Fold each of these.
Amino acid sequence: MQKTELIFIASPGLSHLVSTAETAKLLLQRDERLSITVLIMKRPNENLTEYYTQKFWSNSNINSRLKLINLPYQENSPVSTNYLFDFIDNQKDPIREIVSNFLKNPSESKLGGLVLDMFCTKFIEIANEFNLPSYVFFTSGACALGLFFHLVELKYEQNQDLHMYKNSDVELSIPCFSVPVPAKVLPAVFVEEGPMSSIFLNYFKRILETNGIMVNTFHELEHFAIESLSNQNKCPKVYPVGPIMSSSSDDEQSTHQGYDEIKKWLDEQPESSVIFLCFGSRESFEEAQVKEIASALEKSGQRFLWSLRKPWGKGMMQIPTEYEDFHEVLPEEFLERTEGTGKVIGWAPQVAVLSHPAIGGFVSHCGWNSTLESVWFGVPIATFPLYAEQQLNAFELVKELGMAEEIRIDFKKDMRGEKPSEIVGSEEIEAAIRRLMVDEGGHRVRNKVKEMKEKSRMALMEGGSSYNAQSVFIEDVIMNVS
């Protein structure tokens, strides 16, 4: 039986790699006719990426049809405001060589195309050079994809200056949303002065050149946006194949340093009584904001588990570190006063924590992976977005879907550290925690999330919406090379 090979190209960063690798594994489990190579871009000192790839590979039961290849680090990669895309684009020659070698060396597999991360669309040129189909794996949701296409249209077809939406109170009619979208939740990169808006939108514009888009979502969660995209003539075929997340919760529980202590504490708490605060692998807060969060938690009286990490330097490329002593940043005697009702920890095994029955709420930055994980485990969110498309995700959860409580929707952190950060006050945070964990409105949100939890699992079962979308994608890939 001839196999069809796909080459997946993940952009740098753990969140993109996790969903890309897990998608590859899922497709391989679905159809024995496929084999997949995942190309990994690893920045220096990215230990979590290395740890994940090792564990992913060792736990995989489809190793014979799966290859993971670390692309070479480009020592002379320029450091600039466009560092991420420069870093990605500098991999063009190694990727071309891998594709060329595959085509030169006959094997039992026929190359079916390139599956590109949403930030790797420049490599469409390599697919075209070798007359191969190209697909995109979009690691965020359908609403975000629809918004990006809408902004591409505004800029390139209607010649709008998107800077006009900075700090604007206008609300936009966007096809993939059923409600008007405030300009204040648009990703900051699109409305700020400077070249980055055009750089980002050019990458998203090129998605329209591909043969299809796999989106990490499922029809029941974003049916309005998915149907809107499917009805747009210029949009390639959309395959909602999610929710796709890390499948390593058991592995995290057994290997993460300190998890035994976390689990022991959670085991002692009543069911659905603990609110979990965690803000992703790259997010942290300055001392003033930490103190406001601490005050809110203490005043709320709620049990809490707080993943608190230390800022390290300035800029988006820096990864938070661990505090040696939480007393250096928390209010005086906070740990002593909250002993028994709360626990402050460093880096958290998020999937393992969210799966614990004691967790009843989640203060989250609303990254898409975290959003899907909250749905999968039926844990409602209080929204605290920081950057990228997180404000849009928060708006979708609160206003479009009614599945979260708002701390803030439009809060934006200056990830470059060039401006003083806005501070969200303790009263605002405390009120949202109470609404989520205690008030009647929180019960309505909780019920919606639990209902979507069941739908998320059904979507991936045989005959489910995402199962069927995966099947259609596989058949389309094979048909395009036959």
Note: The longest strand covers residues 109-117.
Amino acid sequence: MPIDTGDTTWMLISTGLVMMMTPALGFFEAGLIRAKNSLSVIMQTFSGLAILSILWFVIGFTLVFAPSQGGFIGGLDWLFFNNVPFNDSLDYAPTIPGVTFASYQMMFAVITPLLITGAFAERMKWSSFFVFIIAWSILVYYPLAHWIWGRGWLADMGVFDFAGGIVIHTSAGLGSLAAALVLGRRKNFGPDIMVPHNIPLAVIGATLLWIGWFGFNAGSVLASGALAANTLLVTHIGSATSAMVWILLSWKRSGKPSTTAVINGAIAGLAGVTPAAGFISAQNSFILGIALGLASYYAILLLKEHWKIDDALDVSSVHGVTGIVGSLAIGLVASTLINPAGPDGLLYGNPMQLAIQALGVAVAAALGFGGTVVIMKVINATIGLKVREEEEDIGLDVTQHAERAYVS
């Protein structure tokens, strides 16, 4: 099939939108934590964009998408993007250049480990962060992405994940839970330190994430056209519905509708609709958005308020729980009427798909959680994970980077 100029243009735009999401994540997180640590998370996300882009260029793409070695990892055919065609396509995306597909997938590989920064915000050394994101990419993300998107063993079993609910949000969400448990709580953990210092900055980050997510999900069609248009609508409705649920729940709980709640609700909806976005109708996305809003909101109450787990920015709930719910939703409401290349779910005559999706979720959760524990334990035993208590008091901006976000 020849290269399609329209499809290529659409994918270049989508790649730019998804790239924007990484610094947007930094703005979102920075606004929601204390001022003395705000630069530290921006530094993590922005430097992570550089580090993980190079890692993908050198070895990541080939390990994920090169011809499979027994269904478990890709070969070394495309190290440094060697032999990836720029004037011809790969069979993963037959109407766009191979380098366009590889560059687009780079953005997914970049943002996934960086989601975990929200869990260990305000207490992890940058040097440990540097080692962690490289190790996590190689040991967790690349194998899992190959198993599902690189035509590995989970794909062979029929597991579907349109744009990352299993590969990205389940793995990073459970990795965040593990990171919070291994690192332990911040000093004086409680309401006094969980006060956002700049909500407008967080809203800017959330806005850019919402816009970028259209490239994340609709771009995953890998072509322009009707399916991309439906995917964009499904993404927006799922996010808007989840945001509305959070508005109502925060209003009921505190008597005032919360800005922080609406942006968290929107992100929860975006994360949760991601795996199913290319397989479901907008009507089912509306129902899914309600479920995502409820699940993520009450998961935070359980994990942070009841169990006292210090996942600083609730990544395990906003991404992990929603990624699981959205991935299982494929097994319920996916329809080949929407996407003939996808599955039918339980409500469309295929009850086995729910069990298959549950297997994929379980594998991603185990790898994300277990892999994170092992990586962090090794780092802690060698160079150490957590800043000293006095450094935590001063703030990571000064102690890790010798900079201040705000100078009076």
Note: Residues 246 and 252 are 10 Å apart (CA to CA).
Amino acid sequence: MPKADESGYAKVNGIEMYYAVYGAGDPVLLIHGGLGHADIWSSQVAELAKSHKVIVADSRGHGRSTRDAQPFGYELMASDYLALLDHLKIDKTALVGWSDGGIIGLDIAMKHPERLTRLYAHAANVTTDGVDPGVETNKTFGAYIERSGNDYRRLSKTPDQYDAFVAQISEMWKTQPNWTKEQLGKITVPTAIVTGDHDEAIKRQHTDDMASAIPGAKLIILPDASHFAMLQAPDEYNKSVLAFIDQK
């Protein structure tokens, strides 16, 4: 990661949430996916901070952030990020969310649209049956989970609790998200629904259905990329993000 202009821990909803801020300009909040952490966005931060104030954070229990006994839920995690924005005195921001981060972004778009200028939701799902069951045996995804465990042990304040953390968040994944087309149809935030052309985790039909359910949503298919497009093709990913969030 580049050197942050500001970093620290915000006390939100009973946890300590690690965050970092880079650059200046219209704000954009980057939210990582499940089991990950803020540093996954290093290539995006380096580019986006040239023209934007970029905010990254570790979601509750992930990376350097702590967790408590509260059951994981997307609404709670969205509340964490809104509290972080309050802590940073940011009223409104563009949001780029990947996987669980995209789901958190959709939750905010539905319930707190006044906080978002635009939403770039990459590799998200809105019901549990949108996840491809083949992901459980996918080698690329398996390598990500192994890498995430190593990163957790390196970054976390509770490095020996990775298995407990995974067990806690897995309870959420069994039943969430679970939104209807009617709920998606009420989204007013300008939204891009984004997927790699060979995403390992999310069914393509599910992504298409999401885009058609959200009024005015733009469907973006990233070529030659999978669930991990921001790592695999960072230059193309950054161009796609900037083209959408800077659109007037």
Note: DSSP finds nine helices and eight strands in the chain.
Amino acid sequence: MRAFWTAVVLAFVSLLSVGAATAEERWQTLPEPAAMPAPAETGYAKVNGIDMYYAVYGSGDPVLLIHGGLGHADIWASQVAEFAKTHKVIVADSRGHGRSSRTTDPFGYELMASDYLALLDHLKVDKTAIVGWSDGGIIGLDIAMKHPERLTRLYAQAANVTTDGVDPGVETNKTFGAYIERSGQDYAKMSKTPDQYEAFVGQISEMWKTQPNWTKEQLATITVPTAIVLGDHDEAVTRKHTEYMASVIPGAELIILPNASHFAMLQAPDEYNKSVLEFIDRK
């Protein structure tokens, strides 16, 4: 019996050792965002029946940062601090996310894209670069297809263009689970409806079941200079799907961020910022 329990304990210690080793891998971490800098302007824009929170930083050629599903604008703190040195940086909370309100209208990427276009109108910004992460990248692609005149460049990280681009393993991924939990905590602190996180998740989940669902012919109409970007350990979007996107969008640049996952902007902010600026500032 002693030999049996010794084997069990040794096996458990071995698992802990593996866990300790893998815990050191950058792509498995979920760092807290840095503190947001002080904005030059902030407020709520009334767009499409919602109050949309936004903030503006710095000056120069504009860049709009669009966060991913369940997130909020403050996840971009490290990017805002760097980009605002040379750019007018705009961030916002997508409808229902963070500090922005939502309606009973079904969520859809085209609707969310129209929210951001209305925000740009509110801010009197005719044309901007977009850096979109996950759902934000999908919103950016929608704008690139339907309103290319509003964009200078699109840096789309961890986006998908059909639902089968999502890795099914994301449902049990520990890092992604931690992100969902943190998002719920942030929602309770930020939202004007702090007790409605589950209802909000249920509402946006209906969109995720069927959207996006673009054909290669639709994607082939994109004329905006586009970077299709993925962390080499992304938990949510497959590498195969990302490579497909880059192959069907005319002139798209494929960028693979090393030792990073879906949350590259938090895990490797300096490398992420360098990658973005090299692309959006390219002449």
Note: The beta strands are 41-47, 50-57, 61-66, 87-92, 128-133, 151-157, 226-231, 253-257.
